[in-house]
Amino acid sequence: MTLTREELTTYILEIIPEITALRHELHRYPELAGSEHRTRAMIKERCDALAPIYWQAKLGTDLVFEIPGRDPGRVTGLRADIDALPLSEETGLEYASRNEGIMHACGHDGHASLLCGAAMIADRFRKYLPHTIRFIFQPGEEEVCMGAQLVEEGVCDGLSDVYS
Fold first, then answer.
1. Pairing relation of β-strands 161-163 and 131-138?
2. How buried is residue 45: exposed, middle or buried, by Cβ count under 10 Å (0-12/13-18/19+)?
3. Average of pLDDT values for 66-88?
4. Which tens digit of pLDDT belongs to each residue from 23-75?
5. What are 66's strand-pairing partners?
6. What is the Cα 111 distance to its own chain's centre?
7. pTM for this one?
């Protein structure tokens, strides 16, 4: 049982429009640290179909879930930031920020969208996962250190490794 490059590439090409649409939606409605309620809901809405094992939100706007693999004893963490900056957008993009004085100048809209895409890929090819993957959507990276709070709340407990 081996995942082929062709299977993986075909699926990635299939989901690129959905991931791009999510990025544009997140970019259009940025939220500051600790207030990422809409952002969390947009990401969760797309991930609900994956039947992940959700963790209870520890900070109110974090989103953490796992997709189990063949070895439940090993867990790898994948992390993305979801907050924006208190800046006015002047890009003229079709999907420019609609939240006055707030924008994703830092790329967290792309970071979060890519992590959502990784979750979709992990779910699609779940039977090939050698171990469990914990997906961590972290609020409050830019102006506060909510990542440290998530660690204190146990989000990294049991992780073999973590990538951001």
1. unpaired
2. exposed
3. 94
4. 999 999 999 999 999 999 999 999 999 988 999 999 999 999 999 999 878 99
5. 53, 134
6. 7
7. 0.95
One-letter identity of residue 74: R
Tokens in use for 143? 């102006």
- List the structure tokens of 148: 């440290």
**Distance in angstroms (rounded) separating the CA atoms of residues 53 and 133:** 10
Our measurement of the distance from residue 157's CA atom to the centroid of its chain's CA atoms, rounded to an integer in Å, reads: 19
Quick: pLDDT tens for 108-163.
Answer: 999 999 999 999 999 999 999 999 999 999 999 988 889 999 999 999 999 999 99
Give the Cα-Cα-Cα angle 14, 17, 23 (nearest 5 degrees): 135
Residue 147: burial class (beta carbons within 10 Å; 0-12, 13-18, 19+): buried
* Distance from C-alpha of 105 to C-alpha of 30, rounded to nearest angstrom: 10
DSSP state string for 86-149: S-------TT---STT-B--SSHHHHHHHHHHHHHHHHHTGGG-SEEEEEEEE---SSS-HHHH
